[in-house]
Amino acid sequence: MNVKCVICDKVEPIPTDSPEAKKLRNRPIHTYMCQECHQRIEEKTNARINTGNFRLYRTVKKDDEW
């Protein structure tokens, strides 16, 4: 199965029977990102976290008594 990276538009083959290929076939909202783009984003995110100016805003979940 050939897949295209959503960031760099590079086309790569992946095994047809892999779990990732099944996920992409059955759920079209899921997208594929090549390993190079994934590593680049990971490095830049870690660099931003290390600066101390990176804040990850998450909602606070309240515990219900039910």
Descriptive report:
This protein is mostly helical and 66 residues long. The protein is 38% helix and 9% strand. The chain contains 2 helices and 2 strands. The N and C termini lie far apart (47 Å).
Strand and helix layout:
Layout: E1 2-4, E2 11-13, H1 19-26, H2 35-51
Antiparallel strand pairs: 1-2
Brief rundown of the structure:
InterPro entries: DUF2197. The protein has 66 residues and is mainly α.
Uncertain spans: none
Compute the gyration radius: what is it? 17 Å
Percent strand equals: 5-15%
Write down the overall geometry: flat
The number of strands is: 2
Distance between the termini: 47 Å
Give me the secondary-structure category. Answer: mainly alpha
Helix segment tally:
2
- Tell me, rounded to a whole number, the average pLDDT: 88
Percent range of helical residues: 25-40%
Largest sheet, in brief, is: 2 strands, antiparallel
| Strand numbers in spatial order across the main sheet | 1-2
Order of helices and strands: EEHH
Pfam families: DUF2197
InterPro entries: DUF2197
